[in-house]
Amino acid sequence: MSRAGHVRKVRGLGRVGRLRRLARRRPRVDLSHPARSPLGSSVVNCVTYRDGHRVSVPGEAADAVRWVRERGEGFVWLGLHEPTSREFAGVAELFDLHPLAVEDAVEAHQRPKLERYGETLFAVFKTVCYVEHEELTANSEVVDTGEIMVFVGPDFVVTVRHGRHGSLGPLREGLESDPGRLVQGPSTVLHAIADQVVDDYLSVTDSVQEDVDQVETDVFAEHGARVDPGRIYQLKRELLELKRAVVPLGRPLEELATRTSRVIAPDIQAYFRDVADHLQRATEQIAAFDELINSILQAHLARVTVAQNEDMRKITAWAAIVAVPTMVCGVYGMNFDHMPELHWRYGYGMVLAVISVACVLLHRAFRRSGWL
Question: Quick check: 76 and 36 in contact, CB under 8 A?
């Protein structure tokens, strides 16, 4: 396989779990889109590295593993996208992966975690992507999540990606451009994936902050009481999804940074502490957003209550003004024969004048008190 990169098509799984590949080479394709591999399988790429450089090993994936183990140096990186149980069965047998970890990798929908099975590490990362939208509504999707499962052994890395985003192609190319990092072995790939995932967290939190700021501005605007509360609830719900992806990763990163392992190179272990620091920053930002959204929601409810009280005061003031002509007209509508000023020539005009003056005085009084 050339350094430009190629992908071989998986045709099936043998009885001994070996992956058959087409002998002819195919150009590498971008699998970052939501569709499955255009090569007809879940395998995205299978590459062998030695001394930090990509090497071409003819044959099947099992041949690449045998080639690495016979020489006692280098490692194999096999990448898959949403494999089925049948497709992953051969991979599990080839690398002797634990059945529980295999089940998690195939089924997905796992929380971030780190598990150890002998000399193999199994890490689960939640990937996040900010969904662009012109305006936040009660039905807007703000955060889209996916998963990356990573199996790390002394001489192999198996990555399983679920979701529409989180492509590892650019990451692979970045590592290949720096052989000094790849020479450290499979733990370099694990660190690079963790670093990319956490960097995406920070990028998403920065974008979510713009939505939070916009909602805050709208709520405290002149007509903030008219803001749809569904927008606030939707943003809080999306923030909760982001929180579920970010917060649980703290403990696995701490373990990678502090607990020694044969799989993790000592020089790489120190870099996990830096990733953990970045994760802590993202966690603090999300916690701050959560508190701020709660405050915004309370402020919105308070403004709605104040607006309702103002409306009630206006209604009450106008009802009091209308009560004056209603009362006077009600009295003179009783049709008694002997009523004061009933036959007076100027009685009609006087009644209208009294009603008008009373209504004007009440209106001025309510205006001064702020009810109108």
Answer: no
At residue 163, the 3 state secondary structure works out as: coil
Q: What are phi and psi of 315, to 5 degrees?
A: -60, -40
Amino acid at 67: W
Structure confidence by residue, pLDDT tens digits, 331-366: 777 776 767 766 777 777 777 888 888 888 888 888
**Centroid of chain to Cα 312:** 42
Query: CA 160, 162, 163: angle at the middle one, nearest 5?
Result: 150
Which residue matches tokens 């998986």? 10
Residue burial 220-231, b: 16+ Cβ < 10 Å; e: rest: eeeebbebeeeb
Asked whether 10 and 19 are in contact (CB, 8 A), the reply is: yes
Task: Check: CB of residue 362 under 8 Å from CB of residue 320.
Answer: yes
Q: Which residues contact 337 (CB under 8 A, 6 or more apart)?
A: none
Q: Give me 241's structure tokens.
A: 């999804």
pTM of the entire predicted model = 0.74
Amino acid, res. 285: Q
Q: Can you count the helices (H) and strands (E) in the chain?
A: 10, 9
Judge whether 128 and 245 are in contact, CB under 8 Å. yes
pLDDT tens figures, 123-136: 999 999 998 888 88
Structure token pair of residue 307 = 């607006």
